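Narrative progress, year one. The postdoctoral researcher (J.K.) led the effort to move from monomer predictions toward full complexes, under supervision of the PI. The following entry was the first complex the group processed end to end, covering 935 residues in total.
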Amino acid sequence: MFNNHAITFLASLANHLRLLCLTLVLIFSSCVKNKTAPKKEEYVIGFSQCVGSDQWRKTMLDEMKRELVFHSGVTLLYEDANNSSNIQVEQVKSLLERKIDLLIISPNEAKPLTPIVEEAFNNGIPVVVIDRKTSSKLYTAYVGANNYEIGKMAGEYLANRLKQRGKVIEVMGLPGSSPAIERQRGFYDGVKAFPGIDIVKQVYGNWLINKAEQEVLNLKDAKIDAVFAHNDQMALGSYNALKKRKAEAGVKIIGVDALSDNGQQLVANSILTASMLYPTGGKEAVRTALAILNKEPFEKENILKTVVIDSTNVQLMKMQSEKIDSQQKDIKKQQDMLDEQNRIYKDQQSVLNILVVSLVLALVFGGVALIALTENWKNNKKLEAKNFEITQQQQQLLEMSERAKVASEAKFNFFTNISHEFRTPLTLILSPLEDVIADPKLPLQAKDNLKLINRNVLRLLRMVNQLIDFRKIEYDGMRLSASENNLIAFTREILSSFRDLAAKRRIDLKLVSPAKEISVWYDSNMLDKVLFNLLSNSFKFTRDGGKITISIRRAEDGKNIEINVQDTGIGMSEEEREHAFDLFYQGKVDQFKGSGLGLALTKEIIQLHKGDIKVKSEQGIGTAFTILLPEGSSHLAESEKVTGLSEADQNYNSIKIYTTDLENSEVEAKEKAFDSPKDLSLLIIEDNEDLRGFLQQKFSDEYEVFTSADGLQGIREAFDRVPDLIISDVVLPSKTGTEIAQLLKNDIRTSHIPIILLTAKGSAEQQIEGMNAMADAYITKPFNLQYLKASVKNLLRNRNLLKSRFTTELPSDHKQNISSKLDKKFMNEFSGIVESNLANENFSVDDICKGMGISRIQLYRKVKALMDTSITDYILSRRLQKAKYLLLNENLTISEITYQVGFSSPTYFSTVFKAQYKCTPSEFKRNNGSVSNKK
Ligand code: FRU
């Protein structure tokens, strides 16, 4: 019941946990997905920068990045070629391999970069060219100021400032880069209108401050009024060169770019006269690129506005630039804050996720806990109820066992009282009986009967005494009254009681001990019972001429005295050995039924002495009981010790009680030489010697009596003797009576023998079992001898009636029992052999025995039992019958008939025929079968 609940509870818990796991997996997988799943990268823009180290380019990149913040989902791959066209070509190739969606490029030089940009464009990658150009028109859009216009604006401005007269040096950018080419062309056109302006020298500063300084320094003697450098860096380099030659004063220096913290500052510091604003276009390039990618309308040429910044507007410009700068910084700050907010938002989202998960977990666990609690509560309730039930049952059991104890106490009290009650009448039977037996005038038959009574009264007395002793030890807690005695002398005295018996039965009875005296503490009134018991047991199972030895010595353990009672008796089976000390244990073959109480009592007594008893036994070899008794008296309580020699209990009557069973029945041993031979024989199979002897005596007057004490021996006797009837006990050593009946009734040699089963077991089942085994009668003990005798007579008379069946022909449908069927079979076989050998004059009984596979005696007995005639008489009768038939029905001569019925000569035939029928065969034939004395 409880188990079922536990299983249901566990199953539901498992279901909840399964659900919980599923929920957790879902929640965690969604969280993980949020955190780690790649964002959908909408666009990848590759940006190839010719050089990234100067301020102008840094500003360009910053602008781009700032702009990109507003366009999520765009990745910018940035490459810096560091002023090398070759490197830049390789970098563009690599960007294209990385599958960019759009290319922004500021080519270092126009020509070297043209092929790779055209390739990208032709492959469908949109190209936004920024600041510098390639030599091709194959690009998607251009972002940058008009460099030609810048050059021209610079030329015109310079002419104005020089009042249209003066010598000018032009410091150009990298040769081959488009701004250098276009600015140079514009500048040329700008000053063309002013013939007084003379461009005295053009040098390449390659966009670099140091290179420009070096080139200007190289122009040692040139007297100049102005310098136009293609960027502010090179303008500063030129200023530095002039300053080194102390020739800077009054020279107007103009640059390009006008970054607020660079060119504009130089103008504000009057190092440069002016700078042409050249916007980087970073923001515009990104916007144009996204318009292209998003397929929105866009301008192919995005020309950025430019303006001259000089002393007149530089402060305003600076202010504006600074404002823009600060605004941009604000924007940056806001973007950073936005990022921070974003981060916080994401963190909060994570925390929220965890909270949600925890909440779900809490709910689930709470639910599970609630269910568990409810289940627990329910189970507890059930357990409580169960507990209550069990307690009540326990209480009932206690009460019942108390009642049982009282009842068994009462039963044992009853047995003890009854036993005590038995003792007096038994003793009163014994004494007068012994007197009567002692009377010399008593007839022999009566004496035998009285001796039988005497033996059995003693037997009863022994059992009653043992029962009382057992009861005393087991239930009344009988105490030892131990004293220190010489065990050797004590044993010798007990042995002396068995001397006569041993001599009579030629049993070698010995006491072996290394010492004459061994002192042991024991209760002599108890230990004598032990020794009497063991010795009478040995005598019971030892055959005449055997050996019984008691040896007493100090045990090897040095703590005990060992008493060994050893015999050469029949020994015990393993099972009997195991149960030797059990109360009333009955072995399978029942050899031990006489010792049921004695050995159990023995063990109890030895245990009371704090000793031990063991048995060793082997079938056919013998049995040895070994007793260990502790030395000294330290193991005994003071109350268990008595001082002085203890007196043996004289009332015990030990000797007679224990030896009465052990003498061979005199009846059996009686000489039967004078008995007259009897017609009918009986086989008695009974293991109780007295009963066997008694029955033998009672039936010997009328029948030849064979006896057997065990089952197998009985079967052997039945086959050897083929008696006319068998009386058998049911519980027997080696084979039961039922088994004997079954075996004999199913064997053609013995099937005709009536069997009476005789037993103390009077139950209906036992009787049915006996009858099933085809026993002819079943008589229960105690039986009435007259009834048994009448039953024997009756069965034998019935057997006689049956004989006629086999000598005359009966209708085949005559109802027969199984045994008579077997007998019928025997008769058919027997008469068949005889019939087919009637003509054989040498035909003998041996031929029939051989033909039927049985012995001569079995054949004689069987034929006699079934037909009450001898075999030779039967054969002769069959021959004459056949002769009669032949004489009447066949036309044969006497001589021919003589040989057909197995007579050696016609004369002999005639003589026998006449002796039987009082007429010769010829007279018989003549008179047509009428004979004077028909048989
Ligand atoms: C920066 C720079 C600028 C100039 C531009 C021309 O690298 O030299 O100063 O205006 O490039 O491409």
